[in-house]
Amino acid sequence: MTDPRAGRRCHNPLNALHSALYFSPEFAAEVEALGLAGAPRPYFSAAGYFAARSAAMGAVGPGTVTATFFNFSHTLIARHVPAVWAVATPGQLLAARLRAVDKLLRRLLGDDAPASAEMAEAAELALRAAGGCHPAGRPLSAAEADQPVAEQPHLALWQAATVLREHRGDGHIALLTHAALDGLEALVSHTSSGRGFTPDFARTSRGWSREEWSAAQERLRDKGLLDADGELTEAGTTLRAELEHETDRLAAAPYDRLGAAGVARLTELAGGFAATALANGAYPKGIFAGS
How many domains does the chain have? Predict the structure, then answer.
């Protein structure tokens, strides 16, 4: 089997390419053209995000979105879902999403990148890996895997990256639930590790109040996972490490399908594209810890 850590190293640049969409002006313009607007931060439209990311599952209700997105406030989700489906259909959202991806990747990577041999190779490898994502117990990944694959390699790469990202995320949520962490506790403990979003952006973009955030911190202290200063305890650090290790293990199947050489090559190609995208402003400044 492929080293699970190699799968994580491959996942990271693929996820960077996938997630950049939802912070882009291209995506904001597309969903606003459909009648969905309102962003708590520049280029992050809660209504558009909930609609476009859940659209592959159909016109689902707020409970399904809360269950599958996990660390967002149900109150925030219910403010927009199911109202979004009266404005735009899932099919319209999926089409708008791909139009935005096309414009975004051309802006970030250059107009020559979509038709390059490297893009075609990366798309082929990523699609092969995505074909190893089993649907059972993976609702978001399974829904994305059911979507028709675009002919253009850069769009196909993004779609495959999306299947792989949601496959890993679905498994991670199962592990968080097994660890008896609710969505907000998982979010607080992750930001306390110094990784991912800054606590302020994580809290506001996920729709949590300061009081709710503080209450989650107190619950984590009661569990022995957070100290008085809001830092992870030794037990908290150990738990987060175990969760990432087990997430790697549960996410290994698609990378096993590629084999070590295929994973290394996809990591190299996706890493190059992601580095270019990041250098060209794929994400707003200040939303990630240490940025």
Answer: 1
